[in-house]
Amino acid sequence: MSEAPSSPDPEFKRALLAQLPALRAFAVSLCGRSDLADDLVQDAILRAWANQHTFTLGTNMKAWLFRILRNGFYSRARKAGREISDRDGQLTERLAVGPGQYASLAFQDFRRALEALPSDQREAVVLVGASGFSYEEAADICDCAVGTVKSRVNRARARLRELLTLAEGDMPAPDMPTPAA
Amino acid sequence: MNGFKKTAAGSTPHPGKHSTVSHEQITEKLREFYDSVQDEGIPDRFLELLERLDEAEKKVSGSDGK
């Protein structure tokens, strides 16, 4: 009846739904764990919903959502007070213990390598290499310069190559103890 | 079929030392991993959440109406 400014726009909900699988894939790539990833996605949905009046339909909903999710990821990490770039690999170590329900063993090596990257490189390579964003869009999402994204992507790729080359080189057989002398 | 494509756009060509894993394989693996999650679709909890948000907002805007 009256033009309530807050009335839900079915178009908004549809557009949001359409991006959820990608948003979730980004979340899992960012944090490596599906339970935490789904919490991030849920936070992002709630935040997006609450701020839908700030979103202009027809503009880049995907980038908008990814930015929201990314902000949530970093603010959670800050709250948790831990260094998420995980340079010591401790977190990676812990996360690598069991395969997530979402990714089969086939991805184990890759996941491990991805998680070993500093988070700024990880997000850059995921946004550009998998999510299909341009360098400009990724820069906008990560709130940094385009050149920064490019160098992060390059470093991430180089590092992934190194790590995966290593992983392919020496396949450790966990159930095979060192051969008896 | 030689599995090596040149990137046309002015990206700096990396001669790349001897590496068993190519640049393209990295991109491929990254995509495969990402797509494996993306292909899982939308978990029910999110569909339900959106349903609830939608309901709640309809109620609010409904009672707002004069």
Under CATH, the topology of the largest domain in chain A can be stated as: Rna Polymerase Sigma Factor, Chain: A
| Number of distinct beta strands of chain A | 0
Number of helices of chain A: 8
pLDDT below 50 for ≥5 consecutive residues: which ranges of chain A? Answer: 1-5, 93-103
Q: Globular, elongated, flat, extended or rod-shaped: what is the shape of chain B?
A: rod-shaped
- Supply Rg of chain B: 24 Å
Distance between the termini of chain A: 85 Å
Radius of gyration of chain A: 19 Å
The percentage of residues in β strands of chain B lies in under 5%
**Using DSSP, what is the number of strands of chain B?**
0
CATH architecture label of the largest domain in chain A: Orthogonal Bundle
Helix/strand structural class of chain A = mainly alpha
Distance between the termini of chain B: 68 Å
Describe the model:
The complex is a heterodimer of chains A (181) and B (66). Chain A is mainly alpha-helical. Chain A has helices at 10-31, 34-50, 61-80, 90-95, 108-115, 119-129, 135-142, 146-169. Chain A has two domains: 9-84, RNA polymerase sigma factor, region 2, helix turn helix motif (Rna Polymerase Sigma Factor, Chain: A, Orthogonal Bundle); 103-169, Orthogonal Bundle (Arc Repressor Mutant, subunit A). Chain B has helices at 23-38, 44-64. Mean pLDDT of chain B is 75; it is low at 1-18. Chain B has a domain at 23-64. The interface between A and B is large, with 42 and 37 residues.
Topology record:
The complex is a heterodimer of chains A (181) and B (66).
Chain A (H helix, E strand, L loop, with lengths): L9 H22 L2 H17 L10 H20 L9 H6 L12 H8 L3 H11 L5 H8 L3 H24 L12
Helix pairs in contact in A: 1-2, 1-3, 2-3, 3-7, 5-8, 6-7, 6-8, 7-8
Chain B lengths: L22 H16 L5 H21 L2
For the structure shown, list the relevant keywords.
heterodimer; A: 181 residues; mainly alpha; Rna Polymerase Sigma Factor, Chain: A; Arc Repressor Mutant, subunit A; 64% helix; globular; disordered N terminus; B: 66 residues; 2 helices; 56% helix; rod-shaped
